[in-house]
Amino acid sequence: EAQVTQNPRYLITVTGKKLTVTCSQNMNHEYMSWYRQDPGLGLRQIYYSMNVEVTDKGDVPEGYKVSRKEKRNFPLILESPSPNQTSLYFCASSLSRGGADGYTFGSGTRLTVV
Amino acid sequence: GENVEQHPSTLSVQEGDSAVIKCTYSDSASNYFPWYKQELGKGPQLIIDIRSNVGEKKDQRIAVTLNKTAKHFSLHITETQPEDSAVYFCAAIQAAGNKLTFGGGTRVLVKP
To answer: Does A69 touch chain B (CB under 8 A)?
Structure first.
């Protein structure tokens, strides 16, 4: 089954404790992206990757890092999480650049930073 | 950059009635406009899309219309059913762009 898998689904952590949210896709897509979803603000892009070793900032990259060492994996790293990073996070992948033929989204990671 | 505004933010309809969600975009170069449905506890899922060379597209009970001159596009759901209850997002991207820009979302509640 074609899918994007994120882990964990839920995470509660404390301020300053580094964490990684994993994302993996099995569709051989070149383009991958991370979004955060906050009430009333829709989906805002954090980082995206056009291919292996090619990443770039989205609209809200502050406080986040990503890496793309393999085509299928695109982890999101929070080096020093803060409460304003409490949010619902989605990883997505697409065949075309920018999601221009439709994204496949993961099921989401709900992160709470206390 | 692109800016997409979506209205209304919440929409309550009686089962069997129609629902309409409207979006406006700012970048006249945008040429791809998808709609996503997000059910509770799940990621958004593409339900229909339209490209700028087409004015309207239908898929069973859902349709999307595009007015390039006015820079707005709409999602129409006819004969609504309880399973249509969800959050809907519109989005836009230009051909040379690197990312979709999403609207703020519309929470649709279909009352039995």
So the answer is: no
Cross-chain residue pair B41–A43, CB shorter than 8 Å: no
Concatenated DSSP letters of A10-24: EEEE-TT--EEEEEE
**Tokens encoding A16:** 């300053």
Sheet strand arrangement including A4-7: A4-7, A19-25, A76-78, A65-66
Q: For B43, which of A56, A102, A107 is closest by C-beta distance?
A: A107
- The amino acid at residue B91 is A
- In angstroms, the first-to-last Cα distance of chain B is 41
Does A104 have pLDDT greater than 80?
Answer: yes
Residue-wise pLDDT for B12-41, tens only, equals 999 999 999 999 999 988 999 999 999 999
